[in-house]
Amino acid sequence: MLFGKREIVFEAWGDQSRQQAARRALQDAGIRVMEAGFYDTEPPICSCGPKLDLRDYGPNGRIDRHTYYVSVRPEDVQRARELLKSL
User: CA 30, CA 24: separation in Å to the nearest integer?
Assistant: First the structure.
């Protein structure tokens, strides 16, 4: 599982709740999730200091700048994509 092939079937920017729902749906359907995580979408605004972003201090709080993804085994890709179309 650690070194197995995997393909991304779900990817969403700034929406962790949808990623968690996708993981639950795949697990409930018996599809084994190989990897689920996130990566930074936006680079930091400045290159030094505390990297404060003024957009984080608005009325809605911090902005979620991560891209969330879920990947499965290659043999489960078609089934997983069909299942995730409804999300």
Answer: 10
User: Whole-angstrom Cα distance, residue 31 to residue 76?
Assistant: 7
pTM: 0.79
Residue 68: C-alpha distances to residues 47, 48, 64, 83 (Å): 24, 26, 10, 18
Give the residue extent of every domain in the chain.
Answer: 1-41+62-87
Taking residues 33-48, report their average pLDDT.
79
What class, spelled out in words, does domain 1-41+62-87 have in CATH?
A: alpha beta
45-85 residue pLDDT tens:
666 666 677 777 778 888 888 899 999 999 999 999 999 99
Say how far apart CA 43 and CA 29 lie, in whole Å.
36
